[in-house]
């Protein structure tokens, strides 16, 4: 067991925990943040994506021992921002959501991309989302949604 | 349940390694998958763990006269975005894993994991990379081809860790990195290929080739490379079949769920042939 300090959606957290525990399990089971999904559990699908120090990381393969002093933002925390509103609306308008299982991860991936590159090309969007799998949409609508969000969110990123 | 150590400093990490039998964990992108358990339960690690990814002493990229030094903890994404990173290494990183994995995974982890399909490895081999290994009372600088001895096997001792890698910073007239996989992101390579060549007064002055995922180790054959040093470009092209035949002996892939041995060998040699023919 070890003491780990981090911020979770802006709130400072101090816990004593086994450092090998998966961040995904802690987020879902201890903090009830069930917008973070488990798909593959092996880093391949992006359903469990969160922002750690503002970049996308798959929480299913993050041990708690690596997040000391870091800032974690889940889809729940991100959903309180203006950027989220722009991305959400764009996803809705472009039909980028079907069953919705991949959507939290896709939105985190979109934010991580736009934060780093506010005007991505289609190619750059596809690379930015390349670690996120969607079994429903066929991706084109999601790519379009990110383009739309980038246009509408001018100045936000 | 195993014990975990989260040292405050690099020195403390070396001390812990000197006193205990530990498994080092950096980004965890290999280890968390390898020791995965049922969801909600702890991973099935068998040894006590040493967490190192937060150690700032291992997180740097420095340019020196003819080389680039990369700390073992630098994430793959940071290496990709650094202005000091060699063109060929960038090429390999750009199509490796996915942004989320590159934000966690480290250079040190990719090397010590020593997978024959590790995507940075063929490039690191042709760029004559050296691995800097340290323990509490010793430091060794080892060429990468001597450091990795087999699949998941290195000569790292129990009390040592990888501190940094030193990559030759040299430009080349011809350089390629190719990865053959089923999909671009998150696909493990079926075959990877890196090669660099320099020409001086229309003679080959430097020629290095390496293959990944075509055998238990990355293939780089310095004896074969020497045979083409000094030949003209025309002679090199004339020797193309001979060179491919020579390499053929060292390309000993396996059949697995990703690909067949015959396919791997054929494509590996095609990549070499195409590369030689591109040198004009
Ligand atoms: C979805 C997914 C996709 C992937 N795609 C690719 C891909 O396309 N290409 C590819 O090559 N790899 C890929 N990988 C594998 C992995 O991400 C890389 O090998 C990564 O570089 C490992 O780094 P890490 O820090 O996460 O390693 P860890 O899991 O922390 O460690 C890996 C090994 O290295 C040792 N180690 C780590 N740091 C040190 C150190 N400083 N000193 C001594 N020992 C050390 C550990 O003990 C362990 O044996 C993928 C992984 C996942 C989950
Ligand atoms: S559940 Fe984490 S990447 Fe699939
Ligand atoms: S909308 Fe169903 S998986 Fe993407």
Q: Identify the biggest protein-protein contact and residues per side.
A: A-B, 37 and 32 residues
The CATH topology of the largest domain in chain B corresponds to Uridine Diphospho-n-acetylenolpyruvylglucosamine Reductase, domain 3
Total strands of chain B: 13
Structural class of chain B: alpha+beta
CATH arch. level architecture of the largest domain in chain B: 2-Layer Sandwich
Low-confidence stretches of chain A: none
| First-to-last CA distance of chain B | 60 Å
Q: Name the assembly state.
A: heterodimer
Task: Spell out which ligands are present.
Answer: flavin-adenine dinucleotide, FE2/S2 (inorganic) cluster
Counting DSSP E segments of at least 2 residues, the number of strands of chain A comes to 5
Counted up, domains of chain A total 2
What name does CATH use for the topology of the largest domain in chain A? Ubiquitin-like (UB roll)
CATH class of the largest domain in chain B: Alpha Beta
Spell the H/E element sequence of chain B.
EHEHEEEHHHHHEEHEEEEEEHHHH
General description of the model:
Chain A starts with a strand and ends in a 5-residue tail after the last helix. The longest helix of chain A has 14 residues, at 103-116. Chain A has 6 helices and 5 strands, in the order E-E-H-E-E-E-H-H-H-H-H. Chain A folds into 2 domains: 2-75, Ubiquitin-like (UB roll); 81-152, DNA polymerase, domain 1 (Orthogonal Bundle). Chain A has helices spanning 23-30, 75-78, 82-93, 103-116, 122-128, 140-152; strands at 2-8, 11-17, 49-52, 55-58, 71-73. In chain A, strands 2-1-5-3-4 form a 5-stranded mixed β-sheet. Chain A has 157 residues and is an alpha+beta fold. With 280 residues, chain B is an alpha+beta fold. Chain B folds into 2 domains: 4-168, Uridine Diphospho-n-acetylenolpyruvylglucosamine Reductase, domain 3, CATH 3.30.465.10; 174-278, 2-Layer Sandwich (Enolase-like, domain 1). Helices cover 31% and strands 25% of the residues of chain B. Chain B has 12 helices and 13 strands. Chain B has a 5-stranded antiparallel β-sheet with strand order 4-5-10-6-7. Chain B has a 3-stranded parallel β-sheet with strand order 1-3-2, with helices on one face. In chain B, helix 11 runs antiparallel to helix 12. The longest helix of chain B is centred in the last third of the chain and has 18 residues, at 261-278. The model of chain B has no long low-confidence stretch (mean pLDDT 94). The interface between A and B is medium-sized, with 37 and 32 residues. Bound molecules: flavin-adenine dinucleotide and FE2/S2 (inorganic) cluster (FES) (2 copies). Flavin-adenine dinucleotide sits between chains B (23-31, 33, 52, 72, 76, 96-97, 101, 104-106, 108-110, 112-113, 118-119, 156, 161-162, 186) and A (42-44, 61).
């Amino acid at each position: 067991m070890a003491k780990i300090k981090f911020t979770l959606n802006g709130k400072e957290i101090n816990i004593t925990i086994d450092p090998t525990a998966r961040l995904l399990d802690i987020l879902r089971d201890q903090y009830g943040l069930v917008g973070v999904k488990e798909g593959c559990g092996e880093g391949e699908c992006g359903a469990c994506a969160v922002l750690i120090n503002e970049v996308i990381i798959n929480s299913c393969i993050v041990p708690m021992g690596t997040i000391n002093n870091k800032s974690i933002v889940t889809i729940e925390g991100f959903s309180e921002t203006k950027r989220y509103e722009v991305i959400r609306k764009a996803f809705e308008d472009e039909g980028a959501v079907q069953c919705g299982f991949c959507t939290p991860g896709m939105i985190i991936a979109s934010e991580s991309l736009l934060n780093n590159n506010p005007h991505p090309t289609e190619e750059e969007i596809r690379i930015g989302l390349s670690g996120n799998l969607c079994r429903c949409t066929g991706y084109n609508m999601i790519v379009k949604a990110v383009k739309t969000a980038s246009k509408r969110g001018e100045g936000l990123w | 349940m195993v014990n975990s150590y989260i040292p405050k400093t690099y020195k403390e990490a070396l001390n812990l390694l000197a006193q205990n039998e530990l498994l080092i964990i950096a980004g965890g992108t290999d280890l968390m998958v390898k020791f995965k358990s049922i969801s909600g339960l702890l991973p099935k690690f068998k040894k006590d763990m040493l967490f190192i990814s937060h150690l700032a002493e291992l997180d740097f990229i420095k340019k020196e006269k003819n080389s680039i030094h990369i700390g073992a903890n630098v994430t793959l994404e940071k290496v990709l975005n650094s202005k000091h990173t060699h063109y060929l290494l960038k090429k390999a990183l750009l199509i490796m894993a996915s942004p989320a994995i590159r934000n966690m995974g480290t250079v040190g982890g990719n090397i010590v994991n020593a997978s024959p399909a590790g995507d940075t490895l063929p490039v690191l081999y042709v760029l004559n990379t050296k691995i800097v290994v340290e323990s509490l009372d010793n430091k060794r600088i080892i060429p990468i081809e001597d450091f990795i001895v087999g699949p998941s096997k290195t000569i790292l001792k129990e009390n040592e860790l990888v501190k940094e890698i030193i990559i030759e910073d040299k430009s080349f007239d011809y350089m390629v990195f190719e990865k053959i996989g089923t999909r671009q992101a998150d696909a493990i390579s079926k075959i990877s290929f890196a090669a660099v060549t320099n020409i001086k007064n229309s003679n080959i002055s430097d020629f290095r080739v390496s293959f990944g995922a075509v055998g238990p180790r990355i293939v780089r054959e310095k004896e074969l490379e020497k045979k083409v040093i000094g030949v003209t470009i025309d002679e090199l092209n004339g020797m193309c079949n001979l060179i491919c035949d020579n390499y053929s002996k060292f390309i000993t892939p396996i059949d697995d769920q990703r690909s067949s041995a015959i396919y791997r060998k054929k494509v590996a040699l095609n990549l070499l042939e195409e590369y030689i023919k591109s040198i004009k």
